[in-house]
Protein 1
Amino acid sequence: MVTVPPDAVEFLLSRGRLERVEPSVTSAGFLVAEARRHVVSAGTLAETDPSMAFVAAYDGARKAMTAVLAAQGLRAAAGEGGHTVLLDALRSQFPDDREVLQQFDWMRATRNATAYPDSDHPTATRADVVEAVPAATAIIDLAVRFLDLP
């Protein structure tokens, strides 16, 4: 694993892990709206389909992080580890919100175990959803503050 320095955005760009795109606050706003819907869906599905509920909460957090980058004219490059790049890029830019953003790491691991189940890694449970919904909501709130959305 590569250690990401404090100026992670430039580092990730130089490594081809981030790409420059046209900045779009409109796209960012759309992603945040979708992220909010995903978290609502997660709450609705928690009892009947915890795996899908967890993935919805995770996707809400992921899309909120993607929104921040979209507004900055950045996106994670396609390929393995693209979701980790989101965390690395945002963690370096929002040092006061590292604890909030760190929640994405366990959510990513649980989402991967749920999407690609095996006997060594349990899939998401209702209890995981109960933790993931407020974690995703906090990440969405960070994006909303950054983007100055209502």
Protein 2
Amino acid sequence: MAKPSALKLDLVPRTLWGHNLRSSEHGLGPQRWKALRRRLLNEAGGKCSICGSSDRLHGHEVWKYEEGLKRGKATLVRVEIICWSCHAIAHWGNTVRLILSGAISHETHMALRKHFRRVNRCRQVDFDRRTKRALSIHQRRSEVEWDIDWGPYQDAVAEAKGARTRWRERQSTSEQPPTRNDSDAGPGHHSPARCPACNAADSLDLIDEDSDDMSEGQASDYLAGMFGSSVCRECGHVVDWEI
């Protein structure tokens, strides 16, 4: 059995914000990301790869940075399944902003600090020292522009981008009634006609997504019907689809 990895502060440079696998502009897109997360969740046995918790599990991207003076290379090494607490600590810069805004309570803030000390078996002074160092590195890296290498997901990202390009090309060349606008088509517009599990026709009901939890571009794509999830009334199969 693999030894759990240490809990580290892994702040993403500001110049890389939005460049992640979930992005519908740069990465796999929400639905392909959800499918990947489910597979990794199964492989992880439904437990955090750092602390072993099974509470509120997330997919966490681990990056390697090769820095230059003005330009560097960011390589996606792997995606880990980790719990909310470990994820909040890994992205401590964003967590601090949520603490200052009141979105994360003082009690939760203290619990996160305690979680770091427990997992890493260290003192509070160690957490403070690592936080200071991580913020300094983040500030330096945020002044650099990055070339992205998607690592083991390079081919999957290229395939997703190609699919989006082909869809947009079809939309720009297809003959449409003058009143139709796919940007206003609405969620579920491109849902499959048949259930891929039982082949029942017209049996898929849209599962509402919370577009408030998406980035602006992702929410626009969802509201345009470019991706979504549906459940079959006949067999209960859940279908994640993306144009």
Protein 3
Amino acid sequence: MDLSENVHESNISQTVVKALNILECLAAAEKGLTAPQVAKEVGMSRPTVYRLLTTLEYKGYVSEIGHEYRLGTKVLNLAGVLLESMNLPRLAEAYLRQVSEISGETAYVSILDGTAILYVSKVESTQSVRSNCALGTRNPLHCTSMGRAILANLPEDERREILDNITFTRFTENTITDRAQLEEELDVIRRRGYAIDNMEIEDGVRCVGAPIFDHTGRAFAAMSLSGPAFRLSIDRLHELSGLVINASQTISRKLGYQPENNRRNGR
């Protein structure tokens, strides 16, 4: 079934539709197009097209060279993130297995998905009592080690926007539900390079997670190991943090990440 059939017309922004039509027009063109050419192709007035092209150029989705418009680098960056997220499970598998075998616990990889993380790969522990979160599960950023590892390493404006939209749901007695307290914890995570979930989303389960960066230096994913609290004391999590950090850094490098990217971006 076409999902568009379930979308009520009143919920659709015609301005966004027009902007997307312009992007699709530029993507299909074999060379750059002038604004009048774009207006003719998409069937819009020239003033509307000029206004939308100016906005898209301001945001980096369109570039203008000699009065001709082409897709901008922001579109390529988005495509790169999508491709990396699709390749990530295959790339991460060997390192997940290594982390799981050495720690004896379940290892996960997730990607940023709005105000949540989406689990895309895992290697389960062979222990009879173990963590087992199904692939495709979404969990909140504010109370998971992977979520906080990503959040702590995002650019400040992006992190602020996400925090503005988070619902600080309490799952256990340990869940951080205060924004100021979470921001203090994110500062700690950013300095030490890893995050800990001390039974904050599920009683009796602890995790340690570290960020995975893409080729632009953006934290878009994370790796963690997770297990029952009776095996994973806080001290044990700190001991295992280096294992997770090393694996996540190796994956990041294979995705083209270079640490100087973060220094240039002020992270």
Protein 4
Amino acid sequence: MSRISVTTLDDRISDTIKLDALQQRLVSDLIAWDGGRFDPECRRQRDAASEAVETIDTMRRKLDQLRTELVTEIRRYDDESARRTDELLARVRAERNARVPR
């Protein structure tokens, strides 16, 4: 069986910090956009809307990557759990068969 690298807790914390920073940037951009109410005094308004879209796209990619990694880890965990259960059941059956007189 090929070994897939396990994401470390430090990696997860780093990913979470990056997502948090992106969320904060998104909030800032959405506040600047102000729902599209035209404000000729706010030069950043239109740029903020484009930046918000780019931030959302980045967040979606990062969340999709995180989801893929998590699903892979869940499957690996479940496979190991099933393997251990099968091993335990085989041992119990063998012990029971050894006690049954023939």
